[in-house]
């Protein structure tokens, strides 16, 4: 099992959360938007790669997906209509964030909806968002090495830290109580 990349911020288990996400500069927003164009051209395939790696390396995350929680074979996962659908949803949410980087209120709103749905409706432990953000960074860097230089990876790490910060803020807002600290 791989360890996820550090995407910033403290886990909710430690009860510490930075006061705010580190804002992106104009240059960083431009870097993200310029690299995202290449990723999003293949959004379904990239999203599927992200989810397969996520579920293979962190199989406990599959507990939230009744349609494919018993799948262990990556090829079977790749063929799953439900997994492909969720991959498109994940990539679509990141696309909304990237498209609205100029509007912090919109980014906050998009990620609050994601966080609240996963906390209230799906009861997903928030640590899985941090893990998923790290897996996304790994897949993007490996699949698009010509665009994801060290500098670009640092900027994307900053963005993923902000994504995690906003999502966990929504968990706090709905009164999330941690179910277990040993899920992974």
UniProtKB/TrEMBL annotation:
Q: Which UniProt keywords apply?
A: Cytoplasm, Heme, Iron, Metal-binding, Nucleus, Oxidoreductase, Oxygen transport, Transport
Q: Where in the cell is it found?
A: Cytoplasm; Nucleus
Q: Principal place where this protein is found?
A: cytoplasm
Q: MF terms per GO, please?
A: heme binding; iron ion binding; nitrite reductase activity; oxygen binding; oxygen carrier activity; superoxide dismutase activity
Has UniProt tagged this entry with the keyword Iron? yes
Quote the Pfam families the UniProt record gives: Globin (PF00042)
GO cellular component labels: cytoplasm; nucleus
The similarity annotation says: Belongs to the globin family.
Quote the protein name from its UniProt record: superoxide dismutase
């Amino acid at each position: 099992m791989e360890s996820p990349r550090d995407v910033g911020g403290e886990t909710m288990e430690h009860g510490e959360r930075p006061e705010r996400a580190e804002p992106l500069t104009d240059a960083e927003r431009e870097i993200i938007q310029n690299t995202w164009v290449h990723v999003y051209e293949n959004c379904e395939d990239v999203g599927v790669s992200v989810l397969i790696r996520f579920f293979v390396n962190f199989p406990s995350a599959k507990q939230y997906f009744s349609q494919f929680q018993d799948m262990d074979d990556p090829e079977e996962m790749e063929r799953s209509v439900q997994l492909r659908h969720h991959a498109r949803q994940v990539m679509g949410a990141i696309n909304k964030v990237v498209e609205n980087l100029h509007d912090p209120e919109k980014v906050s709103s998009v990620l609050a909806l994601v966080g609240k749905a996963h906390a209230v409706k799906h009861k997903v432990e928030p640590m899985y968002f941090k893990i998923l953000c790290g897996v996304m960074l790994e897949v993007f860097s490996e699949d698009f090495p010509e665009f994801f230089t060290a500098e670009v990876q640092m900027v994307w790490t900053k963005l993923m830290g902000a994504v995690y910060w906003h999502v966990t803020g929504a968990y706090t807002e709905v009164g999330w109580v941690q179910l277990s600290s040993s899920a992974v």
